[in-house]
Design goal:
By secondary structure, this protein is α/β, with parallel strands linked by helices. The strands form five sheets. The protein has a seven-stranded mixed beta sheet with strand order 1-2-6-5-3-4-7, with helices on both faces. The protein is globular and about 75 Å long.
Length: about 625
């Protein structure tokens, strides 16, 4: 393909009339800037194929800047992950560090990556930017898990850590995630400061490795790996190793943390060999999907576990911070069924607190943490053991990391356990983010202890329900990619605030809890991306029955969390069935209502636009988790 000149391409694009003025202006900047010449052939390819929707989405705005970095599809343009947007994030981090003085500069930055496309190159870009700004990088020699980066920051007493990852996003994505000196992601007001710095970057300073940048890089040996694996192993609380385990890394970093932790602990663990090695193409993926919350992603691992008559299947996401768990519904079956994160989190909470009490390890400083959209059963269990529980946190482990650090600063260090419904688990005080190795080890130990008495995680949950009452938690997703999808999500959240549902799952909505500041809720002020953008429709005074809506902070999707509860006075089976039916009804009702409120408050002259948004909503992919 002959590379066209910038003027030729711009003339073609302009003549097409397919791009918005915002996208056209940014395409012009990218084609005329010599430092961005590497992207011209890709832009030309998109033009020649007539992929105008892709061009519009890639250039109409800058990629969303989250509290810990950026994440999105790989490609050219300011709304994509590429060497330019990664470089902007790295440069902003340098300025963030600079603002904290010479000591912060001297601490250096841990740099790592997972297996996704472009990850080694993006990690090198970060090192080159740090070198140009006089900041040392501590770089791993290959793929590592995200939680090990959190660990390494604290272990090396570094100022920050960067992981090139898109976590559980589709395989076409990548990103930049950073940790601060205490091993967690930054929270307000520091997150806003970082966002502003990224938005303000115009010039990116880089020194190529071959031109002296390598002098600013310290290559890490095995000592960090060994310390991390030993720390995870130290969390062992159950001696039995009776449960047999199948493990899948889904072509990601799980080979570096989950597998060795289980092997060193002495478990009979069989890896899914065709998914064990890190591979940026993710050849066995379910289409683009590599999120183990989805049944189609873990189906092969479950089939393999059933063929081996294994007790558990554990699947890590690509950066190995999340762990999906499948177990036998009853001990005598070989069939395995996938547990939700709510299920595993609740079971682990009960198992760990009970075991610690039996061993005399409980302390007044023990603490359980969970997000508000995670099952309330976790809090019920914790408080029954006299353990403090913070149960109303916004989504994200950064909030948990902040509380753990505050406790450490106060000298109140006990046993920490944190969980969220999206298959994230954390224990101990050496990692400040969710960790698939920690979750995998504790789940395998729990399954072993249960197997020894003829039980499974599923039957254990029934025992817990009998004591605390039955919960049914589920999540309904609506995926809305691209510029149009972002507009629709905005309209849905505005509509839900303007016209909330009056009933859900056969129950009246008693009140609405809106975490977003009132000043940000108006049509003029509202913008997607705020961490507190979450609305809850309360269905009972005790908050045990509720439906929550929020836009994802990392993917183009809306998430609806349904929680229903009923005390167990009689046979559990009918209660579980009834709550399941009601929860499914509630999930469908909130999605239907969301579509009906799109465009609320707009004048009649906007009817065509509203119709287009509602059509886009109808095309959104629904997934039940």
């Amino acid at each position: 393909m002959r590379t066209a000149t910038a003027n030729d391409l711009l003339a073609t694009i302009d003549a097409s009339g397919q791009l918005s003025p915002e996208a056209l202006a940014k395409v012009k900047l990218w084609l005329e800037d010599p430092s961005l010449a590497e992207f011209t052939p890709h832009i030309q390819s998109l033009v020649e194929r007539g992929e105008w929707a892709e061009l519009e989405d890639a250039f109409y705005k800058h990629i969303n800047i989250g509290t810990g970095g950026i994440r999105g599809a790989i490609g050219p343009g300011p709304n994509r992950i590429n060497t330019r947007t990664i470089g902007e994030a790295a440069q902003a981090l340098c300025e963030f560090i600079d603002a904290r003085g010479a000591e912060a500069r001297q601490g250096g930055v841990v740099v790592s990556h997972e297996a996704r496309q472009g990850s080694p190159e993006f990690a090198s870009v970060c090192c080159e930017v740090f070198a140009a700004n006089g900041i040392r990088a501590y770089r791993f020699d290959g793929v590592r898990s995200t939680p090990e980066v959190s660990f390494a920051v604290r272990f090396l007493r570094a100022t920050a850590g960067v992981q090139i990852t898109a976590s559980h996003n589709p395989k076409t994505d990548n990103g930049f995630k950073f940790y601060w000196s205490y091993g967690g992601q930054v929270v307000p007001p520091l997150d806003q400061e970082f966002m502003q710095l990224v938005s303000g970057v115009r010039d990116i300073r880089r020194v190529p490795m071959s031109a002296g940048g390598d002098r600013w890089v310290t290559h890490l040996g095995p000592e960090v790996d060994e310390a991390y694996l030993a720390a995870v192993g130290s969390l062992s609380i159950e001696p039995s190793r009776s449960a047999s385990v199948v493990f899948s890394a889904i072509h990601g970093a799980g080979k570096t943390n989950v597998l060795p932790v289980l092997q060193r602990a002495g478990f009979d663990v069989r890896p899914v060999m065709e998914q064990l090695e890190p591979d940026p193409s993710f050849p066995t993926a379910a289409g683009k999907l590599i999120n183990p919350e989805y049944r189609e992603v873990v189906a092969g691992s479950i089939d393999y576990a059933q063929a081996l008559s294994a007790d558990l299947a554990i699947c890590a996401d690509p950066d190995a911070d999340r762990a999906a768990v499948a177990a036998r519904p009853v001990a005598r079956e070989t069939r395995l069924d996938l547990l939700r994160g709510d299920d595993v989190g609740a079971a682990l909470t009960h198992f760990l607190l009970k075991r610690r009490k039996e061993l005399g390890l409980s302390s007044p400083n023990d603490l359980v943490l969970e997000t508000f959209v995670t099952t309330s059963l976790v809090a019920d269990i914790a408080r029954s053991f006299g353990t403090e529980c913070v149960s109303d946190l916004n989504v994200g482990f950064k909030w948990m990391a902040q509380i753990i650090q505050q406790r450490e600063d106060e000298g109140r260090i006990g046993f920490f356990f944190a969980t969220e419904e999206s298959i994230g688990y954390l224990a101990g005080n050496f990692v400040r983010d969710k960790d698939a190795a920690i979750g995998g080890l504790l789940a395998a130990e729990m399954a072993s202890a249960l197997k020894d008495r003829g039980a499974t995680i599923w039957t254990y949950l029934d025992e817990i329900y009998a004591q605390f009452g039955c919960y049914r938690n589920l999540q309904q997703l609506v995926e809305l990619p691209g510029k149009a999808g972002m507009q629709v999500m905005r309209e849905v959240m505005l509509g839900l605030r303007d016209t909330p549902p009056t009933t859900l799952a056969g129950r009246p909505v008693l009140r609405v809890i809106d975490r977003l500041a009132e000043a940000k809720r108006t049509r003029e002020a509202y913008a997607l991306g705020s961490g507190d953008d979450m609305i809850t429709f309360v269905l009972s005074d005790d908050l045990r029955n509720r439906v929550t809506a929020r836009p994802s902070g990392t993917e183009p999707k809306l998430k609806y969390y349904v929680q229903l509860y009923e005390p167990v006075m009689d046979d559990l089976g009918p209660i579980k069935q009834r709550l399941t039916e009601q929860a499914l009804r509630g999930a469908h009702e909130i999605v239907d209502h969301s579509g009906s409120v799109i465009g609320q408050g707009l004048p009649a002259s906007a009817s065509n636009q509203v119709a287009a948004w509602r059509e886009e909503w109808s095309r959104g992919v629904r997934r039940l988790v």
